[in-house]
């Protein structure tokens, strides 16, 4: 396990600023954000990123957290209380370990925050990047590298799904699972689908009709779009901030949840590591995921407030997990719930960990 410090070379930053100042902006196809990232807002953000954002200050803030790499895996490791099981905090896409830092600051146990394989400073795993493969990589460094015998897992999106596999594959070591996106069963064969379940499934299908374009291209032609995003920081920004605005509980005002320094920090991390293309790998490899068995460990769900997951009924989670101890619907905080409402998640996660022991 080697200590790790984020250090972006000056020539990388100079090249980034040069590209930003020479950005060619598109003509709007429709007003505002109705056709994707608003070109007018993007122009403002690009100007801020090029002229006002202080990466060195952001870099220093990130390096205040102890970071390491082991077996090609990057992670933050905060040591707080070795007498209690630690918690692993797993992010999703298009996010990074940065998402979990405000939550980690509020917890009183040991905290481990990995970068997903292929994201930022973590290498891809050998073979398909399935949820089970991510879980295996996480479990290896939690137990073999860090020496923890038992631990909790928390996550959302890809990180939540991988944590679900952790709980299924290693039930003796995973003390409990806390997710913001309720677990899904392998099938609905156990009992007839309820009206509430059908309403959610219908809403999910409707959402996919107008919000699945990004997923389809990353699943089928990832290298095509990655070529554009790896060469244009403005394009990278447009691709990422569209999701931060659309998926967060921001009411259409992106900066209500994420200030420009935060957005530019995320974007610079992706740009400097040239990892946007490898972050797509889990989309390309998604068909190789097997159906996950029922989750046997204690589970807590704090349901994110984002369409259509704000309609997700507990009964679907009950089909996927046999021991749900805690289920709440706070009605605020979207896809990046730990980032948007860190105190809320800290309170619920801490209560869950104390109740399980």
From TrEMBL:
InterPro entries with a match to the protein in the record: AB_hydrolase_fold, Epox_hydrolase-like, Epoxide_hydro_N, Epoxide_hydrolase
Q: Where is the active site?
A: 157 (nucleophile), 283 (proton donor), 335 (proton acceptor)
Molecular function via GO:
epoxide hydrolase activity
Is Hydrolase included in the keywords of this UniProt record?
yes
Using the record's annotation, list all stretches that form the Epoxide hydrolase N-terminal domain.
2-100
Q: Which keywords describe this protein according to UniProt? A: Aromatic hydrocarbons catabolism, Hydrolase
A biological process (GO) annotation for this entry? epoxide metabolic process
- One Pfam annotation, family name? EHN
- Identify its protein family: Belongs to the peptidase S33 family.
**By what name is this protein known?**
Epoxide hydrolase
Q: Taxonomic lineage per UniProt?
A: Bacteria, Bacillati, Actinomycetota, Actinomycetes, Micrococcales
């Amino acid at each position: 396990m080697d200590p790790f410090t984020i250090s972006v070379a000056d020539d990388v930053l100079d090249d980034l600023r040069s590209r930003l100042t020479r950005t060619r902006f598109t003509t709007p196809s429709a007003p505002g954000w109705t056709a994707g990232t608003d070109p007018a807002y993007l122009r403002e953000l690009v100007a801020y990123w090029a002229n006002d954002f202080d990466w060195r200050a952001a870099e220093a803030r990130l390096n205040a957290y102890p970071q390491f790499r082991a077996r090609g895996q990057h992670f933050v490791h905060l040591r707080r209380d070795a007498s209690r099981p630690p918690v692993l905090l797993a992010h999703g896409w298009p996010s990074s370990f940065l998402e979990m830092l405000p939550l980690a600051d509020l917890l009183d146990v040991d905290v481990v925050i990995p970068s997903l394989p292929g994201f930022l400073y973590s290498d891809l795993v050998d073979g398909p990047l399935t949820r089970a493969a991510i879980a295996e990589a996480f479990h290896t460094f939690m137990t073999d590298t860090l020496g923890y015998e038992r631990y909790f897992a928390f996550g959302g999106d890809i990180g939540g799904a991988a944590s679900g596999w952790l709980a299924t594959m290693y039930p003796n070591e995973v003390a409990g699972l806390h997710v913001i996106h309720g677990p899904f069963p392998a099938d609905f064969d156990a009992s007839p689908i309820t009206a509430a379940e059908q309403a959610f499934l219908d809403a999910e299908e409707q959402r996919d009709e107008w919000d699945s374009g990004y997923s389809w291209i990353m699943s089928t032609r990832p290298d095509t779009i990655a070529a554009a995003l790896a060469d244009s920081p403005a394009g990278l920004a447009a691709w990422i901030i569209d999701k931060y605005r659309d998926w967060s509980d921001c009411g259409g005002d992106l900066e209500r949840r994420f200030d420009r320094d935060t957005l530019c920090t995320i974007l610079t991390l992706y740009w400097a590591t040239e990892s946007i293309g490898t972050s797509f790998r889990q989309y390309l490899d998604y068909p190789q995921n097997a159906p996950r068995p029922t989750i046997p460990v204690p589970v807590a769900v704090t349901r994110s407030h984002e369409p259509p997951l704000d309609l997700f009924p507990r009964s679907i989670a009950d089909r996927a997990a046999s021991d749900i101890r805690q289920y709440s619907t706070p009605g605020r905080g979207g896809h990046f719930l730990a980032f948007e409402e860190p105190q809320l998640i800290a309170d619920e996660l801490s209560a869950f960990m104390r109740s399980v022991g």
